Amino acid sequence: MATTTRGLDSQGYIAREGSLDLIQQEFRPLVTAARDQLLSAFGPRMTSLYLYGSVPRGTARPGRSDLDVLIALSDEPTGEDRSAAKALAESLDKGSPQIDGVGLLIVSRTQVLSDLERHDLGWFVACLCTPLLGEDLAEHLPRYRPDALLARETNGDLALFLPRWRERIARGDDPRTLDRLMSRHLVRTGFTLVMPRWNGWTSDLTRMAEVFGTYYPQRADEMRRAAEAAYEPTGAPHTLRTYTEDLGPWLAAEYEAVHGLKAPRP
User: Fold this and answer.
1) Which residues are within 8 A (CB) of 21 and not within 5 positions of it... i.e. 6 or more apart?
2) Angle (deg, nearest 10), helices 175-198 and 205-215
3) How do residues 177-235 score in pLDDT, each as one tens digit?
4) Continuous H helices in 145-219
5) How far is residue 3 CA from its own chain's centroid?
6) Which end of the chain is more exposed for a tag (fewer CB within 10 A), N or C?
7) How confident is the model at residue 100, as a pLDDT?
8) CATH code linked to domain 20-140
9) What is the pLDDT of residue 4?
10) Domain-by-domain residue ranges, the chain?
11) Which residues contact residue 133 at a Cβ distance below 8 angstroms, ignoring those fewer than 6 apart?
């Protein structure tokens, strides 16, 4: 389906990203290995398997990008399921020099299709995930526009993350990992803050920061630096403090004022 330069189709809905055809050759053996190992581990309980992120978009950088995978099970994941998924992700990462980490989300089919998750996890699966195996749950979900409801339900909970980030900094978690995690979250939140006004969608963090900066020029440089850190994190202490004590709190307050708070989860 043809898309506009703002990631929408001809009817103004967010066009689905990614395709198996776009996966670069150097990542194809890894994708096959991940598919086969996950199928072996979870069997018929795994109703759907997706890729998301730079690999199915064809923009992955060898040795620098993650492999991001989402599994939907027929029932609720258990602690054992999550442990098995974590171990498998670590094994794939350790044996694959072409990537820098494996992100593996494990959810239930019911959760994806629930009313509560319709404009969060459901939207994520329908628009940002590329089907690799099994049922495509997007067939049971609506189409999505870049509106205020989507903005609120995707990123209207930044305030909940700030104390967790402070705890991780105080605990001494790897600063580069934190820099990468927090900067990406902040850039995406900054973009979805202005997404309804811009009326489009992009997953490119650099472009997200640029779009944000056109509406909030006073914060444009901070968001641009966060986008740079998302790709090249340094973990500098002053950078992490800026995220948790300046840019983050301001962004959370502005988001609440513009879009309101995300519906609470159990």
Assistant:
1) none
2) 60
3) 999 999 999 999 999 999 999 999 999 999 999 999 999 999 999 999 999 999 999 99
4) 148-155, 158-171, 175-198, 205-215
5) 21
6) C
7) 84
8) 3.30.460.10
9) 64
10) 20-140, 148-259
11) 35, 39, 46, 48, 49
